[in-house]
Amino acid sequence: MEKIKSLEAAILQIAAVIVAAPRYMGAFAAAIGIQLVDYYTWFPNAEIWSGAAMAILEGWAIAFIFRKWRQLPIKSWPWIVMLFLQIALMLTLPFVAAPYLMSAQLSQPVKNILSPFLLWLFS
Question: What pLDDT, on a 0 to 100 scale, did the predictor assign at position 5?
Fold first, then answer.
């Protein structure tokens, strides 16, 4: 059973890297002034599918974390740390999609909706 749990953790880690790759490519390319959509017509589709995979991966990872947390001794330091990390995760997850939704609803770019500090956090 421990091998299965270890395999699940390894799959989650590999999947996280694969899912994040298009986003990091786009972010670092933009940082040096290159818009990947101008060079690769397939890139917007990769980004969209990466977002879909991210949603699945996040749900799976959250379930994995909760299962691990339940196995810890109650009120131990690891239990408390995991509890706070889970609360932080739940509080920050809406921030991932909210600026995009607000941008679409207000027909404004994200940079016009968020303060410079929030834009920095969102980035």
Answer: 63
> What's the pTM?
0.64
pLDDT digits 0-9 by tens, 37-49 = 788 888 888 888 8
Domain with 79 in it: 72-123
CA 36 to chain CA centroid, Å, is: 20
Into how many domains does the chain fold?
2
For residue 26, is pLDDT > 60? yes
Containing 31, the helix (H) or strand (E) segment is helix 2-31
Is the CA virtual torsion 67, 8, 26, 44 positive or negative?
negative
- 66 found inside a domain: no
Cα dist from 77 to 40, 58, 91, whole Å: 48, 24, 21
Q: Are 67 and 60 in contact (CB under 8 A)?
A: no
